[in-house]
Amino acid sequence: MPDSGIxxxxxxxxxxxxxxxxxxxxAVSSHPNSFPKRTRWYYFKxxxxxxxxxxxxxxxxxxxETKKGFYLKDEVSNETFGLGDNWTMFRFVKVKPYKx
Length: 100
Known about the structure:
The structure is a single chain. The chain has helices at about 5-10, 15-20, and strands at about 25-30, 40-45, 55-60, 70-75, 80-85, 85-90. By secondary structure, the protein is α+β, with helices and mostly antiparallel strands. It has one domain (about 5-90). The termini are far apart. It has a six-stranded antiparallel β-sheet with strand order 1-2-3-6-5-4. The protein is globular, with a radius of gyration of 15 Å. The longest helix is centred in the first third of the chain and has 9 residues, at about 15-20. Strand 5 (about 80-85) and strand 6 form a beta hairpin.
């Protein structure tokens, strides 16, 4: 299982690292929110059996997409599921075409 994005967790938080490996997280990345400033959102890439990659996303800025029961399927079949408590699950199929 690749460790891209998780070596810092492995060294700094070995118990957390062991847990995320156990539940099938293969990569973690952190990104600053544009609004509100000083908050971050996190991608957790899973190795869960599926035709396409599944990501769990934690966003400290609660939005409609993080509300439990939210569902969106876009024009290229990417799916977003609101899980509640600032969590979203995203099934990535392909990049949406750029529109000018």
